[in-house]
User: Which sequence fits this backbone?
């Protein structure tokens, strides 16, 4: 009797499942990160409720903050990092502005295309390039924790690119 790992059919299925896990993780990570670039908060005044859920008899009001999504809230780069990048002489203002505008949509687009399996090789390559560009920016402003974090993303993209040949369900699988 042969060991299960010796059976090529089982090995191919394991590689397929491994790719699907990476594809799901990388796709969701990019999609949700991109969507969060469109998040903001709104504050509304509401009556203070007592322990029974009724408005307090004193008429006291509280501020309630709600998370919302929309174009008006878009911020490709967090404001604190944008200020650090703006002070970096190796980053021209036009490139910073372009990256700020394109980061969210690029993450959403690569996340969706990876989840749906559209041209997985090109999508993974695009994600890898995006993570490398983000890493260069963090190197310039000396954000070492973020550099290591993005390095892990690059390694996951590389692993997915190595396993993409085992993908069984994708559109334009050659690409």
Assistant:
């Amino acid at each position: 009797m042969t060991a299960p790992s010796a059976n090529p059919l089982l090995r191919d299925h394991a590689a397929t499942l491994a790719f699907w896990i990476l594809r799901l993780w990388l796709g969701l990570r990019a999609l949700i990160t991109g969507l969060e670039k469109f998040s903001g908060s709104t504050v509304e005044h509401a009556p203070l409720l007592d322990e029974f859920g009724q408005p307090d008899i004193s008429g006291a009001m509280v501020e309630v903050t709600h998370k919302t999504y929309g174009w008006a809230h878009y911020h490709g780069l967090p404001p604190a990092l944008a200020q650090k990048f703006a002070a970096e002489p190796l980053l021209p203002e036009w490139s910073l502005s372009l990256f700020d505008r394109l980061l969210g949509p690029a993450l959403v687009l690569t996340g969706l295309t990876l989840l749906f399996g559209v041209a997985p090789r090109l999508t993974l390559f695009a994600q890898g390039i995006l993570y490398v560009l983000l890493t260069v920016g963090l190197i310039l402003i000396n954000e070492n924790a973020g550099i290591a974090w993005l390095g892990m993303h690059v390694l996951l993209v590389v692993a997915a690119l190595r396993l993409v040949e085992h993908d069984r369900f994708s559109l334009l699988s050659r690409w």
Notes: The mean pLDDT is 85. The two ends are 39 Å apart (CA to CA). The longest helix spans residues 8-36.
